[in-house]
Amino acid sequence: MNETFPRPKVLVSRCLGFAACRYDGQILNNSLIEQLQPHVEMIPVCPETDCGLGIPRAPIRLCQAGEGFVVYQPATGREVTAQLQATIDSILTSHPQIDGAILKSKSPSCGLFDTKIYQGIDKPQFLKKGGGLFGEQVLLTFAGRSIEDEMRLTNFSLREHFLIKLYTLARFRHLSEHPEMGPLVAFHASHKLLFLAYNQSRFRLAGKIVANHGRLPAVEVFRLYREELLRILDAPLRIPGVINTLYHAFGWISEHLESVEKEYVINSIEEYRDERLPLQAVTRLIEAHSIRFGNQYLQQQVFLRPYPRALAGLSDSGRGREVH
Ligand code: SF4
Predict the structure, then answer these.
(1) Could you identify the atom of ligand 1 that is nearest to the CA of residue 110?
(2) What's the average model confidence in pLDDT over 106-122?
(3) For residue range 224-267, what is the model confidence (pLDDT) as tens digits?
(4) Residue 285 near residue 257 (C-beta atoms within 8 A)
(5) Cα separation of 265 and 260, whole Å?
(6) Measuring from each residue's beta carbon to the nearest atom of ligand 1, which residues come in under 6 Å?
(7) How far is CA 121 from CA 126, 274, 289, 304, 309, in A?
């Protein structure tokens, strides 16, 4: 079993545990970010303080203005859109290689989906929820990367998906530094069960790209493969896809098992289906059998260990599996 993991690059809102830079001079501790820190390269940014708004500062508001937005500070009557945008531009161009981001929910700058947007500078009524000035541009600039806010990451399914995607993209980024067909074929093979669990038909399309019947240059194959990879990882794992993949993995070891052992594995998979057992418990069981029988194929499957085991203890209670 391969224990080597890449170190993903993650853009993170600085107020989430790195500095007391909120408008009120507060810092927010976040246990997920604390657990992640030894395993990822964090890039903390704070568009509001980096653009010179100061700490503490009067709160700002995101207001609709035609097709775009203005950022307004009601207490001072100042529009700060231009200075904030200049800092955002600088952040976005300084970190093109990120694998993901964890941003602060609801912030007029960092929010991704739930920032309050007001009707206008002179119309302080609530209009809708959407992305903050920075968050929206992070989603656009880094489309397909593993991007979430700290609130959504309290949902188990989203957190699991975030971690799997983050580490898969980081592995592929490393591979892309020296695009060669051999390592790409090995990457595809070791991710087979994971990608089957995510999206069977997309996995097969990715396989056709790797087969490279058109004899395209490796750089072009990597470009096409990356596009398909982002499609495969577009949505979180769904239980039916995971169940099929668990039975597929089971097929690799079942012939070696006593009937009572087979029954134990099958019962475990079914308990996962019924949300009575975490996925990690079932994959550990299959992994243990794969080690016992020296099954190299299963031991090389990322599906059994998609990210460092130290991150697997993030309270997989089984609750919050489905994304609503
Ligand atoms: S939400 Fe973003 S802009 Fe606001 S304090 Fe945190 S890092 Fe800074």
Answers:
(1) 2
(2) 96
(3) 999 999 999 999 999 999 999 999 999 999 999 999 999 999 99
(4) no
(5) 9
(6) 13-15, 21-22, 46-49, 104, 107, 109-110
(7) 11, 51, 63, 52, 49
Q: The whole model's pTM is what?
A: 0.94
What are the boundaries of each domain within the chain?
A: 9-154, 159-324
Q: Token pair of 207, please?
A: 């396989």
Point out the ligand 1 atom lying closest to the alpha carbon of residue 16: 6
Residue 323 has pLDDT above 90, yes or no: no
pLDDT at 324: 44
Report CA(108)–ligand 1 centroid distance (Å).
9
Q: Give the distance (Å) from ligand 1 centre to CA of residue 293.
A: 51
End-to-end Cα, the chain, rounded Å: 34
For the cut 50, the answer to whether the pLDDT of residue 317 exceeds it is no
Question: CA 274, CA 243: separation in Å to the nearest integer?
Answer: 11
Q: Is residue 130 classed as helix, strand or coil in its secondary structure?
A: strand
Measured in angstroms, how far is the CA atom of residue 153 from the centroid of ligand 1? 17
